[in-house]
Design brief:
- By secondary structure, the protein is mostly helical.
- It contains four helices and no strands.
- Helix 1 runs antiparallel to helix 4 and helix 2 packs antiparallel against helix 3.
- The longest helix has 14 residues.
- The radius of gyration is 11 Å and the shape is globular.
């Protein structure tokens, strides 16, 4: 089964509803990437890797608003 862009967007929103914690969201994205490797398109893969890299330092962090935009864009993607 393919891990869809819409599923990723919906799950990202659920993670954000648990609280905006860079470390937890980054670890969650790393787990998604590991568990579903090669199941998503390049664009979704790039989003997941960018979110997973947020724990590498402040220069990699995305704001809650940026993460919400990614989630909504993924949900609304064709």
């Amino acid at each position: 089964m393919t891990y869809s862009k819409r599923r990723f967007g919906a799950e990202l929103i659920l993670e954000l509803e648990k609280g905006f914690d860079i470390t937890k969201i980054s670890k969650w994205a790393d787990k998604i990437h590991h568990d579903h490797l090669k199941e998503f398109d390049e664009n979704t893969d790039a989003h997941i890797q960018n979110i997973g890299s947020m724990s590498f330092g402040p220069e990699f962090e995305l704001s809650k608003d940026e993460l919400l935009k990614i989630a909504i864009d993924c949900i609304n993607a064709p």
